Amino acid sequence: MSMGKRVVAEFLGTFWLVLGGCGSAVLAAHFGGEGNPLGIGFLGVALAFGLTVLTGAYAFGHISGAHFNPAVSVGLWAGGRFPARELLPYLVAQVLGGLLAGFILLQIASGAPSFQIDGTQAGAFASNGYGALSPGGYSVAAAFLCEVVLTAMFLVAIMGATHGRAPAGFAPLAIGLALTLIHLISIPVTNTSVNPARSTAVAVFAGSGALGQLWLFWLAPLLGGMIGGMVYRWIGAEPSPR
């Protein structure tokens, strides 16, 4: 597959992830107010992120590998599954796809007369944060540790599910469920990033608070991705023939 088609697939896949995942948080999580049974809530948002990866992986996995996430691309490079020369095109496509989704989501959300973005509130426009911008008020240290560990485990799940000895055809399902689980764990801590492109896509519209904390949601997922990739490269290596 040509590089042009692969980066377009990454662009579209990341667009879908941000539109589906962050869109569910902005438009549907609290629809009708707190306690309204029509709002999808915490569980619904977690499931939405998992579904975007699951469906996107089936749609684009055979074209680009369905990374949709700079931390995944870097982690797969660290794990020996992705060439360094292709990192920059993938990362650029992922960030641009996410930004377009964030922009379109803003246009849709702005169609409601009650919509407003209060950048001083945790989770404003589905943004990530720590301290005062953490949904549960978690510290910067807790947020950093959470993002590193969960991104590392996400890479382990991805590399395990796509290993040559893994059951064929089930990787997108396993990866989507892993991302759902990650959100169930960490929405209260950071509003869940594990994806710098996803964080950037909404931070640029959420205000200076989210932008000022965006460094963590690049550094921690990239570090976690590298750790997870290197760990699985070691534990999942094929034994040498005797």
Give the topology, please.
Blueprint: H1 3-28, H2 41-64, H3 70-78, H4 87-109, H5 140-161, H6 171-190, H7 196-206, H8 208-212, H9 216-235
Q: What is the general shape?
A: globular
The secondary structure category is mainly alpha
User: What portion of the residues fall into strands of 2 or more residues?
Assistant: under 5%
H and E string: HHHHHHHHH
Report the C-alpha radius of gyration, rounded.
17 Å
Would you identify the regions where 5 or more consecutive residues have pLDDT less than 50? none
Number of strands: 0
Supply the number of structural domains.
1
Measured as a percent range, the helix fraction is 55-70%
Mean pLDDT: 94
Name of the level-1 CATH class: Mainly Alpha
| Number of alpha- plus pi-helical segments | 9
Description of the molecule:
This protein has 9 helices and no strands. The longest helix has 26 residues. It is mostly helical and 242 residues long. The chain has a single domain, classed as Glycerol uptake facilitator protein. Helix 3 packs antiparallel against helix 4. The model has no long low-confidence stretch (mean pLDDT 94).
Task: List key phrases describing it.
242 residues, globular, Glycerol uptake facilitator protein, mainly alpha
In short:
The protein is mainly α and 242 residues long. 66% of the residues lie in helices and 0% in strands.
